[in-house]
Amino acid sequence: MLLQTYKYNKIFGLESGESLQKIEIAYTTIGKLNSTGDNVIWITHALTANSNPEEWWNGLVGKGKFYNPENYFIVCANVLGSAYGSTGPLSINPDNGNKYYHSFPQLTIRDIVNGFELLKDYLQIKKIQTLLGGSLGGQQALEWSIINPSLIENLILIATNAKHSPWGIAFNESQRLAIKADRSWYSYSDDAGLKGLKAARSIALLSYRNYNTYRATQEDNREGIDCYKASSYQNYQGEKLVNRFNAFSYWTLSKVMDSHDVGRGRGSITKALNQVKANTLVVAVNSDLLFPVSESILIADSIKDAELEVIDSLYGHDGFLIETDQLKELFEKFYLTQKLKTKRYEYA
């Protein structure tokens, strides 16, 4: 793994009409680009992940895994607004020499993808063999496949949607209300809003998992009137995020997710999805409350010849990170199908 930083020293315009004077994009590359440049696997990450898929998707990425760096040039870029090296709210505003904090401009999925376009050109990538991501990562992958349809050969979208739902926005707003309820949120410091962030993460978990998940994993096999496993779990997960993230980035990226709408400015969602040229696999999780199967069906029905698969998981939305054995089987089937289609075309 090689963590690097791409610096763009010009004005970077945003969809909102605002701009950033300069941007930095932290990114990881694993493996090497081959002589024909046709072995690029670009992975787009979810809300609080970093640019190292070997860390958070190690069932799929790494030496000896499905996406093996001995065969592929694997790229993953940290999204703008995040806490892992790319320009975000804790970066220095070149206009005044202070950190942005609350004044960081609003970003959208399209802004993030436009940053990827710059990085792609810098890395001299002419073709992406496979672009894939789940959740917020899937939103980025889908948007990119519309912005630059000819760039991507294969597109894999997992547990994602074409437009963020009122249900998803309501969850995100509830999390932001939790952050705002923390009085420290209004201070200009790196650790502002951390108690609120802990509560926000607890709210988020209820959308990432579901009733059956908690029943199976957090049931108390004892008699008691307090100190339940489920309570401990919520606190533990909140503390984990507080120790590795910040409330400003969480706020910013939750707004990014809310902004997702591939149909904005393109006539309709269907018209936008009709522009996708990549061979497309759409994967849903049957127990996903946040990105239900119906949202994957909409995508698959609107992209020409797209394939739809549904994986069975106890873990709700988090199944896209956990059920890597099922994903590998679906990926193998998808690539084999594309290979057979190519052969039929060659001999036609």
UniProtKB/TrEMBL annotation:
The active site is at S135 (nucleophile), D288, H317. Keywords: Acyltransferase, Amino-acid biosynthesis, Cytoplasm, Methionine biosynthesis, Transferase. Gene3D superfamilies: alpha/beta hydrolase (3.40.50.1820). Pathway: Amino-acid biosynthesis; L-methionine biosynthesis via de novo pathway; O-acetyl-L-homoserine from L-homoserine: step 1/1. It is found in: Cytoplasm. Signal peptide: none annotated. InterPro entries: AB_hydrolase_1 (IPR000073), AB_hydrolase_fold (IPR029058), HAT_MetX-like (IPR008220). This is Homoserine O-acetyltransferase. The gene is metX.
